[in-house]
Structure formats: C-alpha cells, structure tokens
Amino acid sequence: QVQLVESGGGLVQAGGSLRLSCAASGRTFSSYCMGWFRQAPGKEREFVAAISRNPGSTNYTDSVKGRFIISRDNAKNTVYLQMNSLKPEDTAVYYCAAGYTVQAMGVLTIPRFYNYWGQGTQVTVSS
Q1: Which stretches of the chain are DSSP H helices?
Q2: Where residue 59 falls among pLDDT bands split at 50, 70, 90?
Q3: Environment class of 43 (CB within 10 Å of its CB; exposed 0-12, middle 13-18, buried 19+)
Q4: Helix, strand or coil, per DSSP, at residue 35
Q5: Rounded CA gap, 5 and 120, in Å?
Q6: With 0-12 CB in 10 A as exposed, 13-18 as middle and 19+ as buried, what is 44?
Q7: Which of 56, 64, 65 has the alpha carbon at shortest distance from 94?
Q8: Which whole-number Å values give the CA distances from 102 to 33, 37, 56, 99, 115, in the listed order?
Q9: 75-108: per-residue pLDDT in tens?
C-alpha cells in the first residue's frame, strides 16, 4: 500500500513558477513509476509527466515540454514537478500517482495503469 500526499500548489501569475511535491509513504517507493496528471474543470484527467522507478527515463506531454521538469528522490520517497513559464491553460488540479512497472526504466502515461493516487493540489495561473 502506498499513500501519496501532494503539496506546493497555489496561485501564480502567468510566466511564474511553482514546484509541486508528492510525498509517499511505505518502503517500496522505488518500485514504482511516478507520474503527474492534471484535471481542469469540465475536462478529463490528462497525463503531464512521468519518471521511471530507476530515475533515468522521463516522459512529458507535448504542451509542457521545455517548461516542466519531473524528478524524484528515492531516499526521501518524494517526486517533484518543477513548473516554469506557467500559462493560464496550466490551471488544474494536479495529482501524483504511483504505478508498478516490471522494467526499471519503464514509464506509464495512461491513468488506468497507475495503482495509487494522491488527493490533488490546485494550481491556478492568472493572466
């Protein structure tokens, strides 16, 4: 069982930055691919970024490439999402998720492949 708690959301002006954190409980954090997803009002949850359990492989949705950076610290059981050059269209509730992968370098981009989810943190970008 893994419990995930996100933090770091808030209100920021367009062009600003935020750093989201997701702290995981349990001793098996390093067994999971970690991902960030977001959901805006009236829209489906969408993939943002993911990092393999052996943190050498990452994947980003096109709209955040070059602006967002996902990283993880397995010693601290924490995954991060550094968000730069934020745009109003980045406004959403951001969720972190943990998904088991057989391959150490595997990354998951589909929500149904993730096993555990956090409660979400609101990110609002004003224009």
Answers
A1: none
A2: very high
A3: exposed
A4: strand
A5: 8
A6: exposed
A7: 64
A8: 10, 21, 15, 10, 13
A9: 999 999 999 999 999 999 999 999 998 888 899 9
